[in-house]
Amino acid sequence: MDIIANYGTTLVLVAALFGFLMAWGIGANDVANAMGTSVGTKSLTIRQAIIIAMIFEFAGAYLAGGEVTATIRNGIIDSNAFADTPDLLVLGMIASLLAAGAWLILASYFGWPVSTTHSIIGAIVGFAVVSIGPEAVQWSKFGGIVGSWIITPAISGVIAYFMFISVQKLIFNTDDPLNNAKRYVPFYMFLTALVICLVTIKKGLTHVGLHLTDGEGILLSIAISIAVAFAGWLYIRGQQYNPLDDSKMHFANVEKVFGILMIITACAMAFAHGSNDVANAIGPLSAVASIVAAGGEIGGSSHIAWWILPLGGIGIVIGLATMGEKVMATVGTGITHLTPSRGFAAQLATAATVVIASGTGLPISTTQTLVGAVMGVGLARGIAALNLGVLRNIVVSWVITLPAGAILAIAIFYVLQICFS
After folding, report:
1. 49 or 190, which is more confident?
2. Phi-psi region of 77 (alpha: psi -120 to 50; beta: other; left: phi over 0)
3. What is the rounded distance in angstroms from the CA atom of residue 203 to the CA atom of residue 346?
4. Residue 205 or 252, more confident
5. Would you tell me how many other CB atoms lie within 10 Å of the CB of residue 191?
6. Cα separation of 116 and 160, whole Å?
7. Per the CB 3.0–4.6 Å rule, which of 32, 216, 230, 267 could disulfide with 36?
8. For residue 222, is pLDDT > 60?
């Protein structure tokens, strides 16, 4: 308690600095969930992807990042265990932000798409065990986390596989692929917009005062999706298609039709991602700020200070612009060769899996979901279409994320104790 009384302002400033670093890591690594497939399919250039993501990631983080957040991220530790030693919780949260942020930046440097959620969870568990003991951790949560390494990529992979098979049967394997693309792509646009709307409304818009029932959310999503499909139909009809392009690249005109889908999906997923994953940075930061403001009293939730959401949004944008390219390359081109139609199937499967997880409470990593979806699209063309070496490195990075976050957090926690004691 003396540490909070004597160093309260300093603790908040240090937490803000490390929270910014964590947001930087989220932008550098996790933004591939929204942009990797669009860049990989050449629907967007890296410069265009960065500009779109800067706008929509920041908008999602700032507008829909949340007014109230759980003090302890995902309830992975019991806050009551720290009731008599709130200073340990504050130092531990600061250590967790630096540990998770450092790991994300390291992973981004090597181009590994890892889970930001698992990074911060591993860090929080690490400091909790050494500061209070194993009893401070709610170990039952870990079954879902470990299970998500298998379950979520499997679900998204299966959805992506069958989605791409449907595209092949309805469009590519027909006598007139271009006309069939014009006929069926507006339906895929409706389906894509519907899933994205459900993700966004479920994940974000309750935080900006739009409190809809499930039925109202579904009706609004359907209405928006019909409008998107109609606008897409008009756009497709107005496009010019040159038969000579197909001689340069097979199905070039068909893929051109799918290209607009990738841009729509990238914008919407960037908004949903910003609104959801910014919590990994602002959750622990908000916990530190609220505990210090309350003089050491630990509450179940906290109102986010006005400056925290912009800090997280700016950090995400800068991380994306400076270090996002390598992870986008891994997801977009490293696992398998993607075209707009394949990228669409992967992105839609990712969004659909997020909707399923939101409705069922299934623990989920959007990174692992997208990687599973890209694998599913690759498998639709045979196992040889997958780069197994890249996949091996990705899976290894997933497994070591939790212990890496924990080990770093423990080391930093001890250093902070020495600094503030």
Report:
1. 190
2. beta
3. 20
4. 252
5. 17
6. 23
7. 32
8. yes
Choice between 375 and 59, residue whose per-residue pLDDT is larger: 375
CA dist 88 → 94, 298, 384, 399, 417 (Å): 10, 12, 51, 28, 8
Only one residue has tokens 């990631």, namely 57
Q: Compute the distance between CA of residue 153 and CA of residue 157 in angstroms, rounded to an integer.
A: 6
Residue 317: CB partners within 8 Å, gap ≥ 6? 27, 53, 54, 57, 58
First to last CA, the chain: 11
* Residue 143 burial (CB count, 10 A): 10
pLDDT mean across residues, the chain = 84
Contact indicator for 153, 375 with CB cutoff of 8 Å: yes
Q: What is the distance of C-alpha 384 from the center of its chain?
A: 28
Q: How far lies 6's CA from each of 11, 96, 292, in Å?
A: 10, 22, 10
How many residues are there in the chain? Answer: 421
Torsion angles phi and psi, residue 301, rounded to 5: -150, 170
pLDDT, residue 92, reads 94
Virtual CA dihedral for 194, 195, 197, 200, nearest 10 degrees? 180
pLDDT of residue 306 exceeding 90, the answer is: no
- Contact (CB, 8 A) for 181 and 213: no
Indicate the helix (H) or strand (E) that contains 138. none
One-letter identity of residue 10:
T
